């Protein structure tokens, strides 16, 4: 499942990592802490929030990425 998710978001991640790395790492670390604490409700909430924030951002990133691809000289 993780390989499937990674394959689907690779392009967006590649386009926008320089702007999101710190926030993404912080969110991933919080998810791992909740997993280690065996707190399924917190894990679910953190993952849902992380995905929701990324979905809100994806369209903007893809649009900007295509703009950069087709306007670079």
Task: Explain this structure.
By secondary structure, this protein is mainly alpha-helical. Helix content is 92%, strand content 0%. The protein contains two helices and no strands. It has helices at residues 2-36, 40-71. Helix 1 (2-36) packs across helix 2 (40-71). The longest helix has 35 residues, at 2-36. It is elongated, with a radius of gyration of 14 Å. The model has no long low-confidence stretch (mean pLDDT 80).
Keywords, please?
73 residues; mainly alpha; 2 helices
Quick one: biggest sheet? none
Poorly predicted runs = none
Estimate the global geometry from the Cα principal axes: elongated
Question: C-alpha Rg, in Å?
Answer: 14 Å
Helix content: over 70%
Mean pLDDT: 80
Number of helices: 2
**Helix and strand sequence:** HH
Strand runs, count? 0
Secondary structure class reads mainly alpha
- Oligomer type: single chain
Gap from first CA to last CA: 38 Å
Q: Report strand %.
A: under 5%
